[in-house]
Write a structure and sequence with these properties.
Layout (H helix, E strand, L loop, with lengths): L30 E3 L6 E5 L9 H11 L4
Antiparallel strand pairs: 1-2
């Protein structure tokens, strides 16, 4: 028996527990800068937290994607 913490041992069900919350999209400028490349994002400058531009957001999603 494996040490399966999510309780799906033997069922073939797997899932990823990555927090997928996103900041609200901005209606217009000023936009927050991407924390990786400093390009403008789709998010308001007033948002407090990590913001990524669409390119870096996609690349980060590829890096952290669950593999089956």
């Amino acid at each position: 028996m494996s040490d399966d913490k999510d309780g799906t041992a033997g069922t073939g069900e797997t899932y990823c527990l990555i927090d997928a919350t996103r900041p609200p999209k901005a209606d217009g400028p000023p936009y927050a800068e991407c924390v990786l490349c400093r390009e403008p994002t789709e998010y308001p400058e007033s948002y407090q937290g990590v913001t990524l531009c669409p390119v870096c957001e996609w690349q980060e999603a590829q890096r952290t994607a669950c593999s089956g």
